[in-house]
């Protein structure tokens, strides 16, 4: 059943929401664990274990950039038209949840190959979010040099480089090492979904006009951009499915986190994440039905 991947992902998120409401847990510790330990392990193994073709890397990178900038540019002009000037709202309008939600849905729906291609797409999104995104929401207390330094303090940048390097050079690594990293990386998806579910129940809805426009930009405009990209480049198979699937993902949770950190537009960003995540049940199911 094409809804199974959606139900599994949202089921785990529901467990996280219930756990947050009844017992509570530290989102920062879990986020740090995913960001600095399990996530890098998952990404390295995925990039190393399956052969990556340069043409595929190129097309997925181009697709991610095209989808995000289509959403971001539309949002910029849409918010300018209604006189809303806070640039922080561009983040949930532009950046999708291609990791926390995209990984498990791609894995459950398309298998390990689908997950690998989703990771390539997500690495582009992550790099842009933590570079361009930080520039959009930064405050005057943070220098350009400080923001660039923060980007390169994340292990993700180096893990991506090493994973692609070992893949393209076909350098064999000890099986024991890969098995250990696989075991650590396998904790990423359940941890991320539990954390996402817990985070969503702590968010508060602001006035709906601005967040709804952000969700429209992210899911509807992004979905149209993904569809047009697939048609223009005549993509087929798993690559086409991944582009279409990630194009309709809801706003990234980290778009809220960055707004909160830099005191930009946290309330509207939080509302957009919550509304978009709920609405994405429909958009993800629609894409899965179309590509199944």
From TrEMBL:
GO biological process terms, semicolon-separated: transmembrane transport
Primary localisation category: membrane
Membrane topology, as annotated: Multi-pass membrane protein
InterPro entries xref list: Mem_transp_PIN-like
One GO cellular component, as annotated: membrane
Subcellular location per the Swiss-Prot or TrEMBL entry: Membrane
Pfam families linked to this entry: Mem_trans
Name of the molecule in the record: AEC family transporter
Domain of life: Archaea
Keyword Oxidoreductase: no
Keywords of the record: Cell membrane, Membrane, Transmembrane, Transmembrane helix, Transport
Residue stretches spanning the membrane: 6-24, 33-51, 57-82, 94-113, 119-138, 150-171, 177-198, 210-232, 238-257, 269-291
């Amino acid at each position: 059943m094409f809804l199974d991947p959606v139900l599994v992902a949202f089921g785990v998120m529901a467990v996280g929401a219930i756990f947050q409401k009844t017992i509570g847990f530290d989102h920062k510790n879990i986020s740090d664990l995913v960001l600095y330990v399990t996530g890098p392990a998952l990404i390295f193994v995925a990039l190393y274990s399956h052969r990556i073709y340069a043409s595929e890397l190129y097309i997925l990178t181009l697709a991610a950039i095209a989808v995000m900038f289509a959403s971001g540019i539309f949002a910029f002009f849409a918010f300018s038209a209604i006189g809303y000037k806070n640039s922080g709202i561009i983040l949930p309008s532009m950046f999708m949840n291609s990791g926390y939600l995209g990984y498990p849905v791609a894995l459950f729906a398309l298998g390990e190959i689908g997950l690998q291609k989703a990771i390539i797409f997500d690495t582009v999104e992550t790099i842009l979010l933590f570079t361009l995104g930080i520039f959009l929401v930064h405050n005057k207390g943070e220098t350009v040099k400080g923001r660039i330094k923060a980007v390169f303090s994340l292990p993700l940048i180096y893990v991506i480089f090493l994973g692609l390097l070992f893949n393209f050079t076909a350098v064999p690594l000890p099986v024991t090492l890969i098995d250990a990293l696989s075991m650590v990386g396998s904790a990423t998806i359940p941890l991320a979904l539990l954390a996402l579910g817990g985070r969503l129940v702590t968010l508060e809805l602001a006035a709906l006009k601005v967040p709804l426009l952000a969700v429209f930009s992210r899911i509807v405009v992004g979905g149209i951009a993904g569809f047009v990209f697939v048609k223009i480049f005549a993509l087929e198979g798993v690559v086409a499915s991944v582009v279409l699937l990630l194009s309709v993902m809801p706003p990234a949770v980290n778009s809220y986190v960055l707004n909160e950190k830099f005191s930009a537009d946290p309330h509207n960003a939080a509302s957009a994440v919550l509304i978009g995540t709920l609405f994405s049940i429909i958009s993800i199911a629609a894409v899965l039905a179309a590509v199944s």
